[in-house]
Structure formats: C-alpha cells, structure tokens
Design a protein that fits this description.
It contains 8 helices and 13 strands. The chain is 33% helix and 28% strand. The protein folds into 2 domains: 115 residues, Rossmann fold, CATH 3.40.50.720; 94 residues, Alpha-Beta Plaits, CATH 3.30.70.1450. It starts with a strand and ends in a 5-residue tail after the last helix. The radius of gyration is 22 Å and the shape is elongated.
C-alpha cells in the first residue's frame, strides 16, 4: 500500500483517485474548489482545499511523503505549470502531470517531470487498438516497442499448442500465463494446448504480436 496525492479533482483526477483507493492505496485529493473537496471527502483518504499555485500552502502539505503526486489540472495551464514548479522546488521526486496542449507538454518536459499524460490521445490510441484487434482486451507498453498483451481467445477457436501459436516468433514472443476459468497456468510449456475462451498473457515486440494476430481469430 502506498500513499498518493492527486491535485485537481475534475473527472480525470477523481477517477484516478478512486481507482487508487480501490487498489488499496491511500489518496489525498486536493482542489481549490471547496464543494469538490467536500463532495469527495468520504471517498478519499482525505480531501483538502488548497490553491496549489501558492507555494507556501503546498509546503505545509508534506507532499514529499507521497509515493507520487499527480497534477490533474488541465484547463488552467498556468496553474498546472506553477504547481509543477513548486512541487519540483519542494523536492517531490515522482511527479505525473496531465497535459492538454503541445505547449503545455513542451514546458512540462523542460521541467523534467516523471510522466506527462495526454488522456484523450492515450484513450484514443487504446480504442483504435481495441477496434483493430478486438481479441486484445488490454495491453501495456513496456518501452522499446515491447508490449504485454492480454488476449481473450474467441469462441469457437481451433485448439492449438502455444508452439504453433507463436511459430516463427519463438525467440521473441513469450507466453507468460494462460487463464482458464479460475485456473491460472504460469509460464506454460510450449506443448500446452490453448482453447476457446482462454485468456493468454503474451510478451513480445509489437511487430511480432501483430504478425500472430490472425492466428488468434
Ligand atoms: P477534467 O477533464 O478532468 O474534468 P479539466 O482538464 O477540464 O478537468 P480543470 O477542470 O481545469 O481540468 O481542472 C481540474 C480540477 O483542478 C478542477 O476541479 C479545478 O477546480 C482544479 N484546479 C484548477 N486550478 C487549481 C488550483 N490553482 N489549485 C487547486 N485546484 C485547482
């Protein structure tokens, strides 16, 4: 369990906060709008009213004790940037910031934040991936063009060994897990036969995963 701080309790900020709470973490939510802080005080570990452009007010919140601080202010770029600068000055190491425009992104990258998030673009890319490869229920980019993908095999599906599924890509694609109902098979052998409705967790470079996609229909 870790402690996170989320600044800005708009739709994006509160969704991320509540998701973190569901994952068992503690979350301090901060907003200058007292109605929002009040509205979410029961759902978050604590909800504080603070104008985060005020460095002295931020300093009193001991934000360095958070595992990470997420700045979820989108519209007011000036407030987002000032807040980020203050967090840097206060020594917060892990700063994630939502950016709305490319100018916002450029300045944030100069400030050296840990991660710049573009929710609309990231979600758009995910939706396009889902439309293109409906069998991929989720994926995680782990950098250098490699992905971990969660694939749900359709029904009907001709049973086949993992070996034949990844044929030609044995050195690049690895099957990390097969889930069948409640059963979980970790690092299954290549002779393991997968069948309809199984969920596979595969790891590999995107090009190789795209090449085997037709075998998953
Ligand atoms: P979303 O799409 O997530 O609803 P948004 O991208 O439109 O939000 P805003 O509505 O501008 O972003 O900001 C999100 C929240 O940040 C709002 O609830 C707003 O009150 C809060 N906020 C904006 N400026 C400050 C500030 N200086 N201090 C604290 N909170 C702020």
């Amino acid at each position: 369990m870790a402690h996170f701080t989320v600044i800005g309790l708009g739709r994006f900020g509160i969704t991320a906060s509540i998701e973190l709470i569901h994952m068992g973490h503690t979350v301090t939510g901060i907003d200058k709008d007292e109605k929002l802080a009040e509205q979410y005080s029961g759902e978050l570990t604590q909800a504080l009213i603070c104008d985060v452009t005020d460095e002295r007010a931020l300093k009193e919140l001991n934000l360095c004790q958070s595992e990470a601080v997420l700045v979820a202010i989108g519209e007011d770029m000036q407030a987002s940037l000032l807040c980020t600068l203050h967090l840097k000055n206060l020594g917060v190491k892990e700063i994630w910031v939502k950016a709305n425009t490319s100018a916002h992104h450029t300045i944030l990258s100069k400030l050296g934040v840990t991660r710049i998030i573009h929710p609309e673009e990231e979600m758009g890319a995910r939706v396009a991936q889902a439309l293109n490869y409906p069998m991929v229920s989720d994926y995680l980019s782990i950098g250098h063009g490699s992905y971990i993908v969660d694939i749900h095999l359709p029904s009907p599906f001709q049973p086949m060994t993992i070996d034949s599924l990844i044929k030609g890509f044995e050195n690049s694609i690895h099957c990390l897990m097969v889930k069948r109902g409640q059963e979980v098979m970790k690092s299954p052998p290549s002779s393991y036969i997968v069948r309809e409705c199984d969920t596979l967790i595969l790891f590999g470079p995107k090009e190789a995963l795209v090449r085997i996609a037709p075998r998953l229909k």
